[in-house]
Specification:
- With 191 residues, the protein is mostly helical.
- The protein has seven helices and two strands; from the N terminus they run ββααααααα.
- The chain has a domain of 114 residues.
- β1 and β2 form a beta hairpin.
């Protein structure tokens, strides 16, 4: 079966459902990969340059940095071993997820975003200065990945229309949640 550019699909066999994800290399991603390949394999003499860094911004809802250090010691140790940069000075600006994520993903607070790039709850945050747009402009391959309810839809916010990243698997998680809730409603009364 040819899947073309489909990123997500469901395989149903009898009563089993299996969600599959694949990340095809789009034309845009191919251009970025070609850029980096050419940058580091050109036969022309260039000044030595370190390979570009990989960037992972990790935000865990309702978990402060100090809570993560105490509660996730093996994860923190692995990050340190791998040379991750730790934003030791980063502090939450709100008890809620959306304002905190807006702070480190946009550099804006909610009222500033509502006054500029997403003036009301009907307009998605796609036109806001999301940090991955800067990385994308520098030929980084980008992905925005989260679990649960989408951060930018929380609390009546307007969400992201398409994620504005190269890979945006949120629709897969939404579909899984929707199907599992239907399956649970059918299965639970039968216990």
């Amino acid at each position: 079966m040819y899947l073309g550019n489909w990123e997500f699909f469901v395989i149903k066999c009898g009563i089993s459902l299996n969600f599959e994800a694949r990340f095809p290399i789009s034309t845009q991603v191919k251009k970025k990969l070609t850029f980096w390949h050419n940058e580091f394999s050109s036969p022309l003499p260039k000044l030595p340059r370190p390979r570009p860094i990989n960037v992972i911004l990790l935000g865990i809802d309702s978990t402060s940095r100090s809570d993560a250090v105490r509660g996730l010691p093996k994860t923190i140790a692995l990050f340190q071993e791998m040379g991750f940069h730790d934003f030791q000075g980063y502090h939450s600006i709100s008890p809620h997820r959306l304002p905190n994520f807006m702070g480190f993903l946009m550099g804006l607070n909610q009222s500033t975003a509502r006054g500029t790039c997403s003036p009301n709850s009907e307009i998605p945050f796609d036109s806001c200065p999301l940090i991955w747009k800067e990385y994308s402009a520098q030929n980084y391959v980008t992905m925005y990945l989260e679990h649960g309810v989408q951060t930018f839809n929380w609390g009546g916010a307007s969400g992201l229309k398409d994620g504005t990243t190269d890979y945006y698997p949120h629709p897969l998680f939404t579909a899984i949640r929707r199907v599992r809730s239907k399956v649970r409603s059918c299965v639970l009364p039968c216990r």
